[in-house]
Design goal:
1 helix, 15 strands, elongated, OMP/PagP_B-barrel, OmpW family protein, OMPW, 230 residues, signal, 2 domains, 8-stranded antiparallel barrel, mainly beta, Porin
């Protein structure tokens, strides 16, 4: 009987130890915050190229620096989705265009004014934890982008410019570094692959003159800032 009682106690202790270990494992697997928010300074650097009808040449799109807000939701400790929100303003011109038909040179830069872009971008990320203290957290991501063109100001050179809103895709690389249990520093680089059809109304230069263009904007988004998890 004594041996039976000791055996029962041993089995009970083993069961308790196993249950405790399983609970601890589950607690560790859920040891993460589901939400993060970041405020970053963002350099928007177009890597532009264009095919321009009628007058030929290429395009030039200015770089700019803007504030950007993003939200990240973690499905697990490693897998997350990030949505970025920001808007940028760019000056646009053609380069090396032949405008001799309207009395200009054969290689000219034509000022097309400015345009604002609203490019909400959703990426799905995988986060790594290479260090034991988990303070340094690099990640990679890929996703989609939809860019809205608005507030088009053609200035005085041409009568008007139309940009088609466009769907593109994005790749991402970055890292978070924890300052304390709640706040962290972030650096992030994204490459957007973005193409838009453009129509320039130059009827003020020659009757009925419309200039089509197929434009790759393909900007780099280079950001740094701070975030908070909750």
């Amino acid at each position: 009987m004594k041996k039976l009682i000791l055996s029962a106690i041993a089995v009970s202790l083993l069961s308790i130890t196993t249950a405790s270990a399983q609970t601890e494992k589950e607690d560790l697997s859920n040891d993460y915050s589901k939400w993060q928010i970041r405020l970053r300074g963002l350099a928007v650097v177009p890597d532009e190229n264009a095919s321009i009808g009628t007058i030929g040449g290429n395009t030039s799109i200015s770089s700019t620096f803007i504030p950007e807000l993003d939200f990240t939701y973690f499905f697990t400790k490693n897998f997350a989705a990030e949505l970025i929100l920001g808007t940028s303003k760019h000056d646009v011109s053609t380069t090396g265009s032949d405008i001799s038909a309207v009395g200009g040179p054969t290689k000219a830069n034509v000022d097309l004014g400015s345009v604002r872009l609203l490019p909400p971008t959703l990426t799905f990320q995988y986060h790594f934890y290479p260090l034991a203290d988990k303070d340094f957290k690099p990640y990679v991501g890929a996703g989609i982008n939809y860019t809205i063109f608005y507030d088009v100001k053609p200035e005085n050179t041409v009568k008007g410019v139309e940009y088609d809103n466009a769907l593109g895709y994005a790749f991402q690389l970055g890292f978070d570094y924890m300052i304390n249990d709640k706040f962290f520093f972030n650096m992030d680089a994204k490459k957007l692959f973005l193409n838009t059809d453009v129509k320039v109304d130059a009827s003020n230069l020659a009757a009925g003159l419309s200039i089509p263009a197929d434009v790759d904007i393909d900007p780099w988004l280079l950001g740094f800032g701070f975030g908070m998890k909750f």
